[in-house]
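Troubleshooting: if your tokenizer reports a length mismatch, compare your output against this known-good record of 151 residues.
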Amino acid sequence: MEKDTEKKNDRSRRSIRTLERNLFCILLAEDDEEMRRLLALMLRKEGYQVTECPDGISLLDQLSSLFLHEENQRNFNLIISDIRMPGVTGMEILMGASEDKNFPPMILMTAFGDKETHIQAERLGVAALFDKPFDIDDMLNKVREILLSSV
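Known-good structure output:
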């Protein structure tokens, strides 16, 4: 009887965690298609809703309703973006968002991470910055930490 109750509680906790994750929407911008698909796949396996952007212009397009404070804006709980992309960079998005308190947290990724890039990103309020290549589990753990701290 006690084991049955424990199993039900475990299933219930897992269901609640899955439900919580399904409520989180992540905007992922990465111009390297393989990297973007891998990250999106791993995030979806964790139960997150993911919208993919292949470049900075499509990232900006997805975020335009946020910047314009539109009524029917799409709500993203987290943005994960490469720093260097065609059109608009992840760092430029972070610069534009740094003054907006309603803007979701951002994780940046870069293959060109020097000390100055890290300092600038921290100054602008980045939630995390990952130098490529990075451990995907480290990224997933950071995503989980950021999202759970926002509720």
